[in-house]
Please model this.
Amino acid sequence: MNMNDAPQPRTGSAVNQAEIARRALKTLAERRIIPTPETFTDVYYELAGGRPAGASAAAVIRDVLKDLVRSNRIGSQEANAAFERAQQQDWTAVRDVIDRALERRPGGAAGNWPQTAVALLR
Model:
């Protein structure tokens, strides 16, 4: 096997996952990209041949925002703005929107965020 060959993904193979991770780090270095969690994830899935459905943080946030719009806790314009912030990885702004939405429900408070996040993700 040539070290420059693309990885051959095999579901559930820890050895293969480690090899893809090693190659992802090498690719980031070759491209002179800072290895943040986001850049590593992008390159890892590029080398693995695809990203599992719903793997990106922005995709999860999009689904949470859709649920908040459906339950009339935020408007669609506010949700769109928050999603744009998620795509820019401005997580503080996204969290602020979600906190405000949670405070709008009867008996709600931003302090209930963890329980609500778990419920939304289920």
